[in-house]
Amino acid sequence: MDNNRNEDQLLQSEWLITIAEELEKARVDNESIFSRKPCIYKVPRYLRDADKKSYTPSVVSIGPYHYQNHHLHPMERHKWRAFHQTISRYNHDFKLYFESIKELEPKARGSYEGEIDLNSNEFVKMMVLDGCFMLELFRGIKDGFEKLGYAKGDPVFSICGSLDSIRRDMIKLENQIPLFILDKLLALQSSDGQESHPLATMAIPFFAPLIPTDEPFHKGDAISHFDIQPLHCLQLFRENLVSKGLILPKRTKKLWKRRLSRNVVGKPTTQVTYCVSQLRESGVRFRKRETDQFWDIKYKKSTLYIPRILIHDGTKSIFRNLVAFEECHPECSNEITAYLVFMNNLIDSGEDVSFLNYKGIIEHWLGNDDDVADLFNGLCQEVVADLNNSYLSGLTDEINKCRDRRWSTWKADFRHKYFRNPWALISVIAGVVLLLITILQAFYDVYSYYKPTS
What we know:
Elements: H1 2-35, H2 45-48, H3 52-55, H4 76-90, H5 94-102, H6 105-109, H7 120-143, H8 163-169, H9 179-189, H10 198-207, H11 233-242, H12 255-258, H13 276-281, E1 285-289, E2 298-300, E3 303-307, E4 309-311, H14 315-328, H15 335-346, H16 350-358, E5 362-364, H17 369-379, H18 393-404, H19 406-418, H20 422-450
Parallel strand pairs: 1-3, 4-5
Antiparallel strand pairs: 2-3
Helix pairs in contact: 4-7, 5-7, 7-9, 7-10, 10-11, 15-17, 16-17
C-alpha cells in the first residue's frame, strides 16, 4: 500500500515538474516575442492557398524564407559577381562588410516572423550578398550598368535579360531584407552623404515600372517624403504609392480600428455594393480623373471620377503582396486593400471592364476583359475588409445613397430605355408631340362647345 502511495506521489511530482518546465518555456517565448519587432512575414495560409505563385519568387531569393529553394540557386553566382564588383570598385576588404553586418545580426533576425534556421555565418553571408546585389541593381538603373563595369547585355545586370522578373520578386512579402541592412552597406560605399534620402532616390526609380499607372517615371521626379520610415522594399514601394498627397480622415489614424477581420463585429462594413452597370442605371456617371495617383477616387454630383490604372501580367502579384503586408503588419493602414475592395465591387463582369476601358479608366494588357474582371474579383476573395475607417468610406456612403434613391433610379431607367437609341428618342418625341396635339384638340372641342363662335 505504501509503495503504491509513493509511486503516486512520484508521478505527481514528475507531472508538476513538467508543468513548471512548460511554464518556463512559455516565459522565455513571451520574452522572445516582446524583444522581436517583425516586419517581414510569412504569407498567411488562407491567402497563400488562393494563389501560391504570386507570393513565391521565380528567379531570385532575398532573405531567409526562400533561401533553400533549389530553383533559385542559379542566381547565387550572380550575387557573388555583384559583391566582387562592389569591393573591387571601392577597393574594400571583403571582411569589412561581414564584420559590419555581423553587428546588426540580432536586430536583423528580429525583423523576421519566427525563428530563422541558419547559423550566424550563413545568415550574415546571406545579408551581405543579398544587400550588395540589390544595391548594384539600384545603382545600375540610376547610373547605368556599363558604368558600373558590367558587360553590355549582361544576363542580370542590364536593362534586358531577367531584370523584370527580379524586380517583381524583390517586392514580394516573403522576399525581403531589412532596409537598415541596405543603409549600412550603402554607408560603407558612400563618402559624400549629400543626399537626404539616398536609398529612396536609388530604389524608387528601380521599382517605378511596377507602379500601376501608364505615367512614365522621370529621373527628375521628386521622391516622396514618407510619414514613416519604410522597413523593407515592399513597404518602400507601398509608401511611395500612398504618400503622394493622400489626405486621410483623422479616424484612419486609429490603426487598432482598421484591422482586417474575418468576423467584423459592430457597425456593418460600408462599401460599394453595386457594379458599374447597376450604378449607370441609377444615374451615376463615370469619368477619368486626371492624376497618376490610381487610388485617388472622387465622387461629385452623381459622377464618379476614377484615375487611370494599367493592368499587366504582374499586377496581380503586386497587389496580392501589398494586401498581404497590410493584413500582417499591425502598424499598417489599409489604403490598398480599400481601393481593391472598391474596384472589386465596381467590376462584376467583362462588360463593366469594357465600359471602364471605353472611359479611359482601365487599360490592360491581358487576354480579354473577362480576365481583368476575374483578376479584381480574385484579389480580395479571402479578405474581409472593414472599410468604415478607410479613406473611401465617406465616398461609398454617398454612392449608395444615390443608388438607393427611387427618383434617381426611375430617371436613370427612363433615360436608359428611351434615350440611348436615336430611333427610340425620335419615337418618344413624336409621341409627346402627338399627345400635346390630342390635348389641344380636346381643349378646343370643349372650349368651342361652351363658347360657340358668333
